[in-house]
Write a structure and sequence with these properties.
With about 250 residues, the protein is of the alpha/beta class. Helix content is about 25%, strand content about 15%. The strands form two sheets. Strands 3-2-4-6-5 form a five-stranded mixed beta sheet, sandwiched between helices. A two-stranded antiparallel ribbon has the order 1-7. The chain starts with 10 loop residues before the first strand and ends with a helix. The N terminus is likely disordered.
């Protein structure tokens, strides 16, 4: 995956899904089901075949808590696409600061290893989201899905690129970042969820050719792109068909 994000009359800035080696280091116990590459658990997230419940753990650093509306938007988004009769739960907890201006994905993955508490087990698949108070080396990167059930949001950068003149509201930016990155965890585009009809952008790997789709590359990589309204883009018909064919609703 590559980057992530989007913007409208508002401006959504960029987000990269950087391709680094993010396998955790250190001595903390790690659940092997949660340290695969992004997209590898797409079918497990979408379908009822193995897991009937999703448990999302959001850990936020001091003063970095997401807006309630953003969390609610994420929950409604997931209920639309994930076939989970056991339900989808979201828990939130404050965690220590990175105490740094910038962090690498290697550092993010190691932080997860030290702090994550919910792992995939029995009939529950777990997803981890860390809301960072440190930025990526590029301040335009707003978030990244770096493992099969893991993503980081660079909240300081999100706030820096939202809420201003001709910029998206903070809620729309937080929501857009999380939903685009979840699209990558769901295997879009052509990264764990096979395409029913070819629609992967040949110039932007794992992104959709449709400029109005949530998975279009500019929604995560184009800096301060503007759109005509203040709504979060949704998956287009091709992306939706892909998800359904891989076990989603």
């Amino acid at each position: 995956m590559k980057k992530i994000f989007y913007i409208l009359i508002i401006a959504f800035a960029t987000v990269q899904c950087t391709k680094e080696n993010t396998a955790p280091t250190g001595n903390q116990p790690v659940n092997a089901l949660n340290i695969l590459s992004a997209g590898k658990s797409a079918h497990d997230l979408l379908s009822t075949e193995t897991y009937t419940t999703v448990s999302i753990e959001i850990q936020y650093m001091p003063d970095m808590q997401l807006l309630p509306g953003s969390v609610n938007n994420l929950l409604n988004f997931l209920k639309t696409y994930l076939d989970k009769p056991g339900g989808i739960t979201i828990t939130q907890k404050e965690v220590p600061s990175f105490a740094a201006d910038t962090v690498s994905l290697r550092q993010v993955a190691d932080f997860e290893t030290a702090n994550r508490s919910l792992y995939t087990k029995d009939n529950v698949i777990a997803v981890y989201i860390v809301v960072s108070d440190a930025s990526n080396s590029s301040s335009l990167v707003l978030g990244t899905s770096y493992l099969n059930t893991s993503m980081v949001l660079y909240e300081k950068s999100i706030r820096a690129h939202s809420g201003g003149f001709a910029e998206a509201t903070r809620e729309k930016v937080e929501s857009g970042v999380m939903e685009h990155e979840f699209g990558h965890l769901m295997g879009l585009v052509n990264n764990g969820t096979p395409m029913v009809t070819p629609h992967e952008d040949p110039e932007h790997e794992h992104h959709c050719t449709n400029t109005n789709c949530l998975m279009y590359y500019e929604i995560e990589t184009s800096g301060l792109t503007r759109r005509a309204n203040n709504t979060i883009p949704s998956f287009d018909a091709n992306c939706t068909n892909d998800l359904r064919s891989n076990g989603g609703k």
